[in-house]
Amino acid sequence: MAVAGFGAVSRVSFPFRRSLALCARRRSSSAPTSTVETLADLDSLVGDGTASSPPSPPPPKPNAGSSDGIREWEWKVLSSKELGIKASRLPKPTRIVLNGLKKKGYDAYLVGGCVRDLLMKRVPKDYDVITTADLNDVKRTFSHCDIVGKRFPICHVHVSDCIVEVSSFNTHARRQRNDLSYLPRRSDCDEHDYARWKNCLRRDFTINGLMFNPFSKIVYDYLGGMEDIRKAKVRTVKPAHLSFHEDCARILRAIRIAARLGFSFSKETAYSVKDLANSVLRLDKGRILMEMNYMLAYGSAENSLRLLWRFGILELLLPIQAAYFVSQGFQRRDKRSNMLLDIFATLDKLLAPNRPCHNSLCSTTLNHPRVIWPLDPMVGILAFHQALVRQPRDPSVIATYCLALHNGGNLPEAVDIARSITRSHDNKFPELLKSREWDDGDLICEVRNLASSVTSALSSMTDEHFVSQAMAPYPQAPYSDLVFIPLQLYLSVGRIFECVNNRQLERGYIAKKGNKINYCSLAEGGLAEIRHVFARVVFDTIFPPNSEGEVRINPV
Q: Which family is this sequence assigned to (predicted)?
């Protein structure tokens, strides 16, 4: 068996990209307990650099100067051609739905984050269609279509093996809240402009309030979204406190968008994220799981963890990992790294919106315009790392463990291959012991011990009492016993590791051949592909590839 060296896949770059460093200064103290601050110094997070600790600001009045929320923006109608957007590059299922609505005489637009990503030359995670047709008209237009949802109904249009989500202007208009009734209608706008503008006001952030008509090749910007893209800012459409009070899930979406795009928050958005952070605990566990999935499985896991930590949310959602940050002396605005961040940074190089992590709940292909991907490998990484935090290990033990995972639990073969490793390990991690020589029997024993520790760490992550005690040594930290890992996910993650825990080879298991990741197999939950990616990510973090690129680990 030969395991190829693991190459890197770079993410899409963005010319407007700004640093995620939201701070202007750093505290000198390095005491671990000092990191459990309350983030009162929010001015430094948004770049003002003032030393005071301001109180929580009240929700500002609409159109109040430069504050977040609805402002007097110049409405812009822009050429998609000049902006570099080509409708021909849209996924085929999305084009089929757009064309079907157009042929029936309805207007149809793309709206939201997909327009933002197209403008930024990024691959959208999904595509949202909005139309002037009623949902019943949409259902009559397509033979395979279902109306789903009660509070905010939409259509699921089935095209081949894909689902395209379609919403209606008419549904949104009937449910438009009266809290926008004070906004005057512009004298120079027609009914179409007015309908588009009102719909955009319902969006969460200005950069998501863009509409694209692929037939007229026009992009509509009613909220200053283009300007905020240029400034690399995440800004709420409504005043931030009001927006997050209405839907606290927007706090996690703000973190996710800023992490993925490399944007910073506007000043009021930063204040409100901090002040209302605890409200995310009111979310349904399924919703938290979905948002954590979006953060960790699409190529921006490292940045997401940094922002969750910076704004005091990590200790609410992942107290065990927050305790690790504290133990490392991590400040809120720390630019240093640690093993956990490095592992996820390595994973990020392999994942992107068009190459997401695997889905074991529904079988699909990667051209699906909207797929939610479970957290199996990410939760596995968290459990594996926690096992190393509890008991640091020899790098050769970790290498053998990764190889054994890859080949389905064949420990003698893993030991043979591990002895041929020529890469040097990264010695900056406290989770690693000094390397030593092992005889085969002792090395296998150590690997099995590590496997048991990983299983124990995974169990701890589903234990409310254990989770609640993770931050107990730091009384300033907020209390959280949140466990959002459901039983099905726990069992699925455990399956990744069971081949090393068992003392016999998995019957019928075929290890992955070659070094190239099969993203379709990964998407379909192929166990060999999942184990390969996990082993590759951990191995490349512990044993960084040299500057020459590929390194091969050959059998003895």
A: Belongs to the tRNA nucleotidyltransferase/poly(A) polymerase family.
Q: Would residue 208 count as lying in a domain?
A: yes
350/489 same-domain check = yes
Residues 217 and 343 in one domain: no
- What value, to the nearest 5°, has the Cα angle with vertex 62 and ends 44 and 167? 100
Active-site entry in 43, 117, 128, 334: 128
Selecting among 204, 221, 228, 334, the annotated active-site residue is: 204
Q: For 368-395, what is each residue's pLDDT tens digit?
A: 444 444 578 899 999 999 999 999 999 9
- Tell me how far apart the alpha carbons of residues 359 and 455 are, in angstroms, rounded to a whole number: 21
- The CATH code of the domain that includes 207 is 3.30.460.10
Domain residues for the domain of 82 are 76-223
How does residue 297 score in pLDDT terms, banded at 50, 70 and 90?
confident
pLDDT value of position 177: 52
Q: pLDDT tens digit string along 304-341?
A: 999 999 999 999 999 999 999 999 999 999 999 999 99
Quickly list DSSP for 458-512.
Answer: HHHTT-HHHHHHTTTT-TTSPP-------HHHHHHHHHHHHHHHSSSPPTT----
Q: What are 110-144's pLDDT values in tens digits?
A: 999 999 999 999 988 889 999 999 999 999 999 99
Catalytic residue status for 128:
yes
Q: Has residue 45 been placed in a domain?
A: no
204 annotated active-site:
yes
504 and 368 both lie in a single domain:
yes
Kindly state the DSSP code that residue 76 receives in the 8-state scheme: E
CA distance 508 to 360: 20
Per-residue pLDDT at 522: 81
Q: CA 397 to CA 419: how far, in whole Å?
A: 11
Q: Verify that 201 and 344 share a domain, yes or no.
A: no
**Is 43 among the residues known to form the active site?**
no
Beta-bridged to residue 265, according to DSSP, are 234
Q: How many domains in the chain?
A: 2
The predicted structure's pLDDT at residue 356: 59
> Which among 41, 43, 68, 126 is annotated as catalytic?
126
- Choosing from 223, 253, 286, the residue where a domain stops is 223
Question: 245 burial class (0-12, 13-18, 19+ CB within 10 angstroms)?
Answer: middle
Chain Cα centroid distance, residue 17: 18
Write the pLDDT tens digit of every residue in 39-74.
334 434 444 333 333 334 444 444 444 456 556 667
Which residue among 197, 223, 249 closes a domain? 223
410 found inside a domain:
yes
